[in-house]
Input
Amino acid sequence: MTLVLDAAAQDLLFREARTANTFTDEPVTDEQVQAIYDLVKYAPTSMNQSPLRIVLVRSDEARARLVSHLGDGNKKKTEAAPLVAILAADHEFHEELPKLFPHYPAAKSHFEEIEGRTASARFNASLQLAYFIIGVRAAGLAAGPMTGYDADGLNKDFFGDGEHSVLAVVNIGKPGEDAWFPRSPRLEYDEVVTTV
Amino acid sequence: MTLVLDAAAQDLLFREARTANTFTDEPVTDEQVQAIYDLVKYAPTSMNQSPLRIVLVRSDEARARLVSHLGDGNKKKTEAAPLVAILAADHEFHEELPKLFPHYPAAKSHFEEIEGRTASARFNASLQLAYFIIGVRAAGLAAGPMTGYDADGLNKDFFGDGEHSVLAVVNIGKPGEDAWFPRSPRLEYDEVVTTV
Output
């Protein structure tokens, strides 16, 4: 009652949604991915940097290449997922700032230095990764985000330009049989929140 | 229609929600913050690391200290916000893993090395920052996340242990007059998503 969001939406996005490890065969369409993107693109990033880039791995050849970079525990479920997406940060996001942050033409000049720019790209793309996971759930699908992979291998194989770094690989689909483990405990409010 | 989440919830969380720069005087209660946390705590992090920590800045003294570390453009709105929260990553999150990831007792041993542990803390706490922003909106409130501050000063002043790093300062409340700028453009689907 304290929240405005209706209980069904709370369940869909947070309480009943779970990280899935198995999926049905039902395909995930480009229309679904576009609907997810067109919703979550509005969530905020610093200076509207919007550095997230998404690669949908649809061909058998690309799927096999992707799986070759994953940790052993992630291979089988990724081979079987209806759709696999690689979510990465674009370190050259600042080239888009004249378009994305038009009321402040000097925005791009804040990011001439590569180290700070890369950190900003990864931070803001991480926010967008989280929004994307919520968006997948908003489409009635389950997400299976993974970070267990050879990041250098994945970056080189899928982004040969050296200007992107992978943040997560996300399996997407309808949850299958025994899709998840029992939920692990969360920290209590008083363990996380303090007041000064 | 492609999404399962109802249109009102889509509007509340993404389409009509905006980063607010002014707020009404209506207070934000601890009950609201607890309801937000108790919803978004379920969203996923790697190995359930849950490294986000939140400091609610409620006293005038703490508010003045916080504002002293902010960039000039962020001072006035932060002085006026009903509630200000500091969201930080706990670099020692691995101490909680025996509780948070009980089915894999070796989890903590993956994080003995400080550099990788800090990166993991900041990455996963960034996901949780994004979930928190969505949760603020789920409570019918507006969030005003900011990253323009002296991070070293803020870390030292509010987390003297050297074991936390601030990710964002978030103003929270009901939007006031002229609360936001016109929405900046977003990247189109085809600029962000490719298929292989």
User: Anything to note?
Assistant: DSSP finds eight helices and five strands in chain B.
